[in-house]
Amino acid sequence: MKASFFCPDFDMATHLASKAVLHIADRSYWLGYEPHVAYGELATRDNIEGLLAIEPELAVLTGHGDYDRLYGQGGIEVLWTCSNEYPRTIIYLLTCRAGRYLAPDMVLKGAKAVIGYEEAFMFASLEDATDPLRDPIARYFFEPVAEAVEKILRGGTAGEAYRHNRSRYEELADGILTTGRPWANAVAALLIHDSEVMVLEGNPNARVEAVPHPRVRAEEALIPIGSALLGYAVSGGNPLGFILGFLTGIWLVRARSPQGTS
Amino acid sequence: MVVKIRELLRERPSLAYVPIAEIRGRVVTLEDLARLLELRDPEAERVARRLGIDPPKGEEARRLAIEFWRRTLPPNVKIHVLGCKSLTVEEAIKEIERGTEVGEELVRAYERFVRRYIK
């Protein structure tokens, strides 16, 4: 199963947003998807068409945007209303204003559901931020996006992802205002703004066709073997101890990678 | 009214710094307003009665939004807009003063914030 990610990187805003999307692409790999990424100089009109032509289960498209269009690397137009047909996929448009006209146009031309923003998507960061998920301010804006996309990748509906994203923004804004810091107001105002201008077009019950099995990391593969040997040793060389240890190890690995889609 | 504002500030102390109204030509924060109400200032009482019912609009909202971003956005923090650019606090204020699309969105962000938390 494929997932597509479009990430121009030519100024600070696109750099941080695209970095966040790259983290999501990496996560999609471990969830069992085959991520296809057009990053930086590769974020062109031709390549966005390629990313859509492979008929991904999900596409996350970022970059500067306007009501009816999306811009790629260097501010070149890559999508606009009436420009394309779209595969039956779920699209997250992480850009300004395109939720107003481009998102409904995508649904009209084939997309199952599109999450976007009908006014500016605004976020804040420290002036020297390089990684949005490590920046103490930018993470408030991108973690909820990553969580929402992960919900879809794990088989949740577009509506669940949309509601989760919005409610996380609101929870984070509520929480940050208890700190007593003046800057919390600026961050909370941007979070509330983003939440209120977020839109969902298309079918709120849309979901990926099938959820792949997550990939197992090398260190996780060693857990069942280690616990099997431990079980064998503790049971005094009993093969049943080996089997019980192995099964315990598998249970531990599964417990570390929850499959829930709530 | 002052009891309600004090309760709000106990729940969310950061709100103390939010510019909320103009009294005798001076921008006052929620904390300033609570203090004036404790002194039984008649103009403050008039403003407090409007809270949540008749929020600041037009030019007053614009002036308050400028003060909001000036007072709450630290100099080492930038606002990024995925529609055009990244802004320092001074640049954000200039956008509001010029009435650009981003400036208007920053005013609306302030208005949404006030509507949600100060009622």
Structure overview:
The complex is a heterodimer of chains A (262) and B (119). Chain A folds into 2 domains: 2-202, Rossmann fold; 218-256. In chain A, 45% of the residues lie in helices and 18% in strands. Chain A is built from 8 helices and 10 strands. In chain A, the strands form 2 sheets. In chain A, strands 2-1-3-7-8-10 form a 6-stranded mixed β-sheet, sandwiched between helices. The longest helix of chain A is centred in the N-terminal third of the chain and has 19 residues, at 12-30. Chain A starts with a strand and ends in a 6-residue tail after the last helix. The model of chain A is unreliable at 258-262 (pLDDT under 50). Chain B has one domain (2-117). Helices cover 59% and strands 13% of the residues of chain B. At the A-B interface, helix 1, strand 4, strand 9 and helix 6 of A face helix 4, strand 3 and helix 6 of B.
- Counted beta strands of chain A: 10
Structural class of chain A: alpha/beta
Helix content of chain A: 40-55%
Number of helices of chain B: 6
Rounded to the nearest angstrom, the distance between the terminal CA atoms of chain B is: 11 Å
Q: Please report the first level of CATH classification, the CATH class of the largest domain in chain A.
A: Alpha Beta
Structural topology:
The complex is a heterodimer of chains A (262) and B (119).
Chain A: E1 2-7, H1 12-30, E2 34-39, H2 45-53, E3 58-62, E4 65-66, E5 69-71, E6 77-80, E7 90-94, H3 102-108, E8 113-117, E9 122-126, H4 139-153, H5 158-176, H6 183-197, E10 198-202, H7 218-234, H8 239-256
Parallel strand pairs in A: 1-2, 1-3, 3-7, 7-8
Antiparallel strand pairs in A: 4-5, 5-6, 8-10
Chain B: H1 2-11, E1 19-23, E2 26-29, H2 30-38, H3 42-50, H4 58-72, E3 77-81, E4 86-87, H5 89-98, H6 101-117
Antiparallel strand pairs in B: 1-2, 3-4
